Amino acid sequence: MINGKVLLLLVAGGSLGTIIRYLIYLLADKHLNHLLPWGTLIVNLTGSLIIGFAWGFMEKSHVPPSVMLFLFIGILGSFTTFSTFAFDNMSLAQSGAYKMMTINILLNNIGGIMLCFGAFHFAKLVLK
Predict the structure, then answer these.
(1) Alpha-carbon distance 62 to 30, whole Å?
(2) Domains of the chain by residue range
(3) Cα→Cα distances 103→1, 4, 37, 106, 109, Å
(4) pLDDT at residue number 84
(5) How far apart are CA 72 and CA 33, in angstroms?
(6) Which of 9, 48, 66, 91 shows its CA 20 to 30 Å from the CA of 56?
(7) CA distances from 84 to 28, 43, 75 (A)
């Protein structure tokens, strides 16, 4: 069961991650070309770097679970879901579940892109 402290940690972390993501989006939009979605790319790659580093650091130290919830699910979960995706795949690889890691990568990437394209075209048909 989720308690009030956990919810507050998630809300605080989620709020912070969302604000940081938005600020990065604004800076990228203002200062970089529009050939790529730089804001998204920056937060996805940065989030993956941070979650990998934080996980490695936290495995070697005695960090309370509440800090992990705040950082991993709260801040990074709202900052970018790609960092969580990278974390999940690293966990699968470390446990030797390479087949499941491959399936997870394919389902997330190909499935996500197909759903996005499909939903886009479906909405255009429905909203004609």
Answers:
(1) 41
(2) 4-96, 97-128
(3) 30, 36, 26, 5, 10
(4) 80
(5) 30
(6) 9
(7) 22, 12, 11
